Amino acid sequence: MARFQPLAMLRAAFSRPDPLGAPADDSGFDSELESTWTSIDRELRGAVDQLLLHRLMLSASRRVPITALEAGPVKGVVRVRLADGVSVLARPEQATACTRLALAMARGTRVVLDEVRLTGEGVLVRTVLGRSGEVAARVVGFDQGD
Q1: Which of 35, 50, 115, 130 could form a disulfide with 126 if both were Cys (CB 3.0 to 4.6 A apart)?
Q2: Judging by beta carbons within 10 Å of its beta carbon (0-12, 13-18, 19+), is residue 10 exposed, middle or buried?
C-alpha cells in the first residue's frame, strides 16, 4: 500500500475541488468594462472630430470645391472628395441630398462647403445650392483618397 502513497498525493495536488457556493456575480465587472470602453470611445472620437474639423474648416475657408460623390462602404454613407485631396465619409441628413448635390455638380455649379461646425454629435457640414436650398451632412470620418 505504501507504494501507491505518492500517486495519491499527486492526484490530490492536481485535483480541483468543487467550488463552494454559487459562482461570483460578474455583472459589476461587465458594466465597469462597458463604461471604460465608452469613455475611451468618447475620448478618441473627440480627437478624430477635432482633426476633421480642422481639415474641413481649412478646405471651407479656401473655398475648395467638391469634386466627386461616391457610394460609401456602408448603406446611408457617401464618400465625398474635395479638390485638395481631402476625402471623407458623410451621412446626409436629407434623403435627397446626394441627388441634389450631384445635379448641381452636373450643371457645372461649383459646390463648396459653406459651413463646418462641431456639434455634440460630431462634425456637421453644410453647403448652399442657391435656389435649390441647402444640404447638410454629419461627417463620419476620413476616407482614403485613391
Answers
A1: 115
A2: exposed
pLDDT in tens, 24-51: 556 677 788 788 887 777 777 778 899 9
**Claim: this prediction has a pTM higher than 0.85:** no
Q: Domain spans of the chain?
A: 33-142
Q: C-alpha cell of 135?
A: 444640404
CA dihedral 132, 135, 83, 69 (to 10 degrees): -90
Quickly tell me which residue has 490530490 as its cell: 12
Q: Look at residues 130, 128, 145 and name the one whose alpha carbon lies nearest to residue 60.
A: 128
pLDDT tens-digit map of 68-98:
999 999 999 999 999 999 999 999 999 899 9
Q: Which phi and psi angles does 35 have, rounded to 5°?
A: -65, -40
Whole-angstrom distance, CA of residue 140 vs CA of residue 49: 9
User: By the 8 A CB rule, do 136 and 97 touch?
Assistant: yes
Nearest Cα to Cα of residue 111 among 130, 92, 96: 130
82 and 142 Cβ atoms separated by less than 8 Å: no
